[in-house]
């Protein structure tokens, strides 16, 4: 049996830590790296906390829920509190359902317009496709935490969304925080938690109910 000695063991552990940190920090230094890190992800599911900040309010409005994504473009965004509602993305179309009399019914009044624009983007982001959006121009900002700044290409959309700031997780292929800047007096932060990838998601979750 070969004895490495305590000094050598410490060196090996130190190098291993450096390598593992490098793998975590360096996964999102270019668009190509982001796409490669996300290419093996077929499903994503997570909880989220959404905080809407308004200048006229002393405290943000808080909603909580879960989201489910299955490649290439099936997505369920479900608010569980304070009021249950569901947004479903399928084949590029977004429909919203609200709870009435213990069942979900389709909302045909055009509510949640901001999220209807953002949902198709989240599906693309879950596949690592930030720089190919037809709606937003993307700028990559590498650092200790990589951020991506998305700005609307169409001036008419700027009246609703000025910019979107995305903070990537240290774990490859994952998003930590999305900040939607709607105006100088309003912005929304969505923080993701308990993220799971490549777990089976039942078809029923991509239908209203």
What can you tell me about this protein's structure?
The protein has 209 residues and is α+β, with helices and mostly antiparallel strands. It has a single domain, classed as Clam (outer membrane lipoprotein receptor (LolB), chain A). It has helices at residues 6-25, 31-38, 113-125, 155-158; strands at 43-54, 61-70, 74-81, 85-90, 93-100, 103-106, 136-141, 147-152, 163-168, 175-183, 186-197. It has an eleven-stranded antiparallel beta sheet. The protein starts with 5 loop residues before the first helix and ends in a 12-residue tail after the last strand.
List keywords for this structure.
209 residues, alpha+beta, outer membrane lipoprotein receptor (LolB), chain A, eleven-stranded antiparallel sheet, LolA/LolB/LppX, OM_lipoprot_carrier_LolA-like, Outer membrane lipoprotein-sorting protein, lipoprotein, signal
């Amino acid at each position: 049996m070969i004895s490495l000695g305590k000094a050598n063991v410490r060196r090996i552990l130190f190098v291993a830590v450096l390598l593992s940190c490098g793998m975590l920090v360096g996964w999102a230094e270019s668009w190509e790296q982001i796409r490669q890190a996300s290419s093996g992800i077929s499903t994503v599911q997570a909880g989220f906390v959404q905080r809407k900040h308004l200048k006229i309010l002393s405290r943000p409005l808080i909603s909580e829920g879960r989201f489910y994504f299955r490649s290439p473009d099936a997505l369920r965004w479900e608010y569980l509190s304070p009021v249950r509602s569901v947004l479903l993305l399928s084949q590029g179309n977004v429909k919203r359902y609200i709870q009435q009399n213990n069942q979900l019914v389709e909302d045909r009044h055009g509510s949640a317009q901001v999220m209807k624009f953002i949902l198709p983007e989240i599906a693309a982001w879950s596949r690592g496709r930030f720089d190919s959006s037809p709606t937003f121009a993307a700028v990559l900002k590498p650092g200790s935490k990589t951020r991506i700044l998305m700005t609307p290409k169409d001036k008419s959309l700027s009246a609703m969304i000025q910019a979107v700031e995305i903070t990537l997780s240290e774990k490859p292929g994952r998003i930590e925080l999305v900040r939607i800047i709607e105006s100088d007096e309003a912005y929304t932060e969505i923080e993701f938690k308990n993220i799971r990838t490549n777990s089976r998601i039942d078809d029923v979750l991509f239908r209203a109910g």
